[in-house]
Fold these 2 entries.
Entry 1:
Amino acid sequence: MTFTTATVAAAALLLAAAATPAAAIVRSFNDLSANTIRSGFSPADFKMPTFVPANTLSLPIGQVSQGTVDNYPALGMRDIQMSYVAVKLNAGATLPAHTHPRAAEMDYVVYGVVKNSIVEEFGSARPSINTILHAGEVGIIPEGLVHAQTCMGSEGCLFIAMFNSADPGTSLSQSSICALAPMQVATSLGNGKSPAEAEKFCMGGVF
């Protein structure tokens, strides 16, 4: 299957890396007390910026900027274990369906109107959970469930997504399914799609 450059770049930005010096620091934290660990960080380490160019990906839908332990090791402290993503969406744009396998998510809307759509797990009494968030409101997303956010406002949206893990992980739904063989993709998409149609579906990428 083929992915677009933007799709691969988005996945690379959203996925928290494991084999990095910062991750190695986090692993060593288990050998020290929380107080000792904190004493090794300066006050400046307890404040994180958003939309730093090195951590920000500009896309047709807007901008996505991630704060992870790889960028800010203090997030990996034993008594913190958090990460965040700042998302600017253009009016009418949608952040594609994705999951975070190791974290629940809390979204704070800074401005705009955001629709949070969550896909329930198989066998649930309802297929999805949809909420409309206005500026100043907070939405929550259970760990591991597929979800997407759409900017309903006419002037764009900004929200901050916070995770209860320093390594939440991210899987983009379309990219994930397109990693399968064409026949498997066709079966997963349903509606009588052929492997050729599945190939065409995956050629488009996410963005």
Entry 2:
Amino acid sequence: MVDAYGSHSLYQRPNNYPKEAFADSVQRTQQPIVTGTSVLALKYKDGIMMAADNLASYGSLARFKDIQRLHPVGQYTVIGASGDMSDFQYIQQLLEEVSIEESTQQDGHELGPVEIHEYMSQVMYGRRSKFDPLWNSLIIGGFKDGKRFLSYVDLLGTTYTASTLATGFGAYLAQPLLRKAVEGYEDVLTAEQAQKILEDCMRVLFYRDARSLDKYQIATITADGVYISDSLKLQTSWDFAEGIRGYGAQTQ
């Protein structure tokens, strides 16, 4: 084909920038890959209590069964995450850097749950605004200066506080149970009662959420500091399933 206009391609400058060996393989997270499900949290009279199971699922495969999704931040705060676990690891690195930077100031101030919440809300909204969100829903609980603090932040930067919070399927299955048991009783619930409530909710989630596990941890944040339990095992029974239509021999 004859080029009637005699056009020619422009001279291309060579790219003399330093070359990154893995540049072609660097990608943004397009969707969650290895994920954790619900995190539950509530206020009780002495502080905050949170619960999350130890499962990280690869799609529908229950792949990693010893993942800790409750992470302590400093002396006053615990952050719990559902969603993509690699993004949660990145968040842990960010918080570690912030904590180190704060401690090196040696000005007598320490980061509390309110500051961690504000920082994470800005991080999540900033990443969302770059169309490169961190695919997590976070619950931030803490106790400092005699005050309880419990808040929620998601991948869009949406934030709110309440006396009971839940992420994942827990927002649909456990939140109604939490509200019924806790709201109005935040100042009288004991630690034993709070743990029983969370245990019952985790059992319901194990029965109904296919991405959950019967192995979980409890985090307690009080005036004495942060305590995260070893893995606990739910006591469950599937006897009720025999009466469900479509299950086993019960087909009609």
